Amino acid sequence: MLSRCAALEARAAALYRSWAAGAREHPELCALWTRLAREEEAHARALVEAQTDLPPVEGWRTQVTGWDEAVRAADEALSAAERLHGAGADIQLAAALALESTELDALRQLLLAVTHHATGIRPPQDHVLALAEAAERLSRDPHVLLEAALLRARGRLGPPAA
Predict the structure, then answer these.
(1) What is the 3 state secondary structure string of 45-106?
(2) pLDDT (tens digit, 9 = 90+) per residue, 60-86?
(3) Domain residue spans of the chain
(4) In whole angstroms, what is the distance from residue 62 CA to residue 7 CA?
């Protein structure tokens, strides 16, 4: 699971980096994609470090119900976003909001907590709220604005109760 989530985080970073490269003529959008790419890279690094430090006996004792579905949903959202070569800012923002609406951040947080690597990790709300705020500033598309509002609302609710 650590490997799968680290790979998804790395793919998200690469996606955001490619969008940043294509948005150089729009400094605010380029800065957003660059920030998100750096954060996703940090997420991937944290998961790789957790995997490296994980005692073998810990790996087989953890089971999360619904894990496969959550990883599959994140992978599908990421795959859809990766197919958007040359798409406009509104379409990219909608795809990023859809990706950040998946449970990938929650899964990362859970993995880091289970492996005792949760120190120094910012709450997922910081990451997603920055995207939602930027989407609201940069877009007038009703779909993007709705997705941003939903992401904000979800961030206010916090993580699901265990």
Answers:
(1) HHHHHHHHHCCHHHHCCCCCCCHHHHHHHHHHHHHHHHCCCCCCHHHHHHHHHHHHCCCHHH
(2) 555 667 888 999 999 999 999 999 988
(3) 2-157
(4) 20
Nearest to 20 by CA among 43, 42, 40, 36: 36
Q: pTM here?
A: 0.85
Tell me the C-alpha to C-alpha distance, in Å, between residue 42 and each of 83, 87, 95, 154. Answer: 24, 26, 21, 23
Q: Is the dihedral of CA 55, 75, 103, 35 positive or negative?
A: positive
Would you say 108 and 5 are in contact if contact means Cβ atoms under 8 Å apart? yes
Location of structure tokens 């939903």: 150
Nearest Cα to Cα of residue 101 among 47, 27, 154: 154
CB 75 within 8 Å of CB 7: no
Residue tagged 């994609």 (tokens): 33
